[in-house]
């Protein structure tokens, strides 16, 4: 990876768990970061089931649990635009938008071509 290290994706309660992320996902995210030309700060990558339960509103079948998802810090409308535009350009088809982050995943077990709000 050019822009990330595995520990950026660690669940807070499981050091080293960033290695559970799928390589295909990480390569796509790395390509999107290159296109956007702005830092992608990872708020959340891999999650253990225990950690996932501590996050209000988190789904019990979250793609974070299987290494297919990340939340990228995006606290301004311009940053959200740059992040989302780059994610779409590299082929991501599952994006969630919040005030302070953008969720992205490419979980093959879930429906594609969706965008939602938090």
Commentary on this structure:
The protein is of the alpha+beta class and 118 residues long. It has helices at residues 23-36, 49-53, 77-89, and strands at residues 42-44, 69-73, 94-97, 101-105, 114-117. A 5-stranded mixed sheet has the order 1-2-4-3-5, covered by helices on one side. Strand 3 and strand 4 form a beta hairpin. The model has no long low-confidence stretch (mean pLDDT 97).
Strand order of the largest sheet: 1-2-4-3-5
Residue share in β-strands: 15-25%
- Please state the average pLDDT score: 97
Content-based structural category? alpha+beta
User: What is the H-and-E element order?
Assistant: HEHEHEEE
Work out the radius of gyration. 13 Å
- Low-confidence regions: none
Number of helices: 3
Distance between the termini: 29 Å
Fraction of residues in helices? 25-40%
Strand runs, count: 5
The backbone outline, from C-alpha atoms, is globular
- What profile does the largest beta sheet have? 5 strands, mixed
